[in-house]
Design a protein that fits this description.
Helix content is 36%, strand content 28%. By secondary structure, the chain is α/β, with parallel strands linked by helices. A hairpin with a 3-residue loop joins strand 11 and strand 12.
Length: 343
Amino acid sequence: MPVAVIIALMSKKIRWGVLSTASIGVRKVLPAMQLGKYSTVAAIASRDLTKARETAAKLGIPVAYGSFEELIADPSIDAIYNPLPNQLHVPWTIKAAEAGKHVLCEKPISLTVAEAESLLIVRERTGVKIGEAFMIRSHSQWLRTKALIDAGRIGKLRCVVGCFSYFNVDPANIRNKVESGGGALYDIGCYCIQASRYAFGAEPTRVVGCIDRDPQMHTDRLTSAILEFQSGQAIFTCSTQMVPYQRVQFLGTKGRIEIEIPFNAPMDRPTRIFVDGGDLFGADRITEEFPICDQYTLQGDQFSQAILEDADVPVPLEEAIRNMKVIEAIFRSADSRLWETIA
């Protein structure tokens, strides 16, 4: 790329508008995006104007709106970050795209495959970029793990084993409302699926799932699944009512890689992966450490760069749809008690 073009890109920032004052945005994503080289949060909207103004003042966001429609109509906004409850992801992503805004939508991008596929038509018609916010795909620990696997450092990858859990029994919390797409599989199991597909660089051919639902809230509070790939298997457990924990291991024919904190990578200390050749006592274990970074800053910048350079976004719609197909198949399997194929 010519130096003049690079300089021009570095001087340009994508102006982001945010739909809602959702907790994940206020606590993590927005402060991180404000630190980006290519992104700035220019406006935020809430159905409660007072709340929008309070959040804007707290985070140093210039403009606050009392409706999502006003924000989407703002001609100065280039892109929309959509952290709304899961059932609102698709309808508001469509409205933003129809207004000519690029959209980074929180995961899961939809509640069904059909919903997700409907966004393809909208994207083609409007010409905007639409992506799913899997921030882990921007973090150096994941990029390094993928590079090691592809280089054959652990031989042939045969199995991915993951666990992701936290404890939350508050019925008022959006993650515990079934009508809003709450539950373990939608909220955090999607990360384990994304991790497995990313590591294998392929799609599972069939899955089997087991779900335990909360008797009052009816959300899946404990979900486990096996994903069968042509070259191996992935196994994961996720839970909204279990001790907080997360870990992913990649086991090959000659070695193993373990990501210590794979999903909620800390922003105040380095992250680590462990690589070994199979010694049970860890005598051959190598620790690789990665500098402190904010994966949300990286995610925002990579999406913004894709807009500026008219390139592919980190996790495009096609990728989001493939992840959604696995989620949907696991739900089907839990009901049928059978293996379910992936279309």
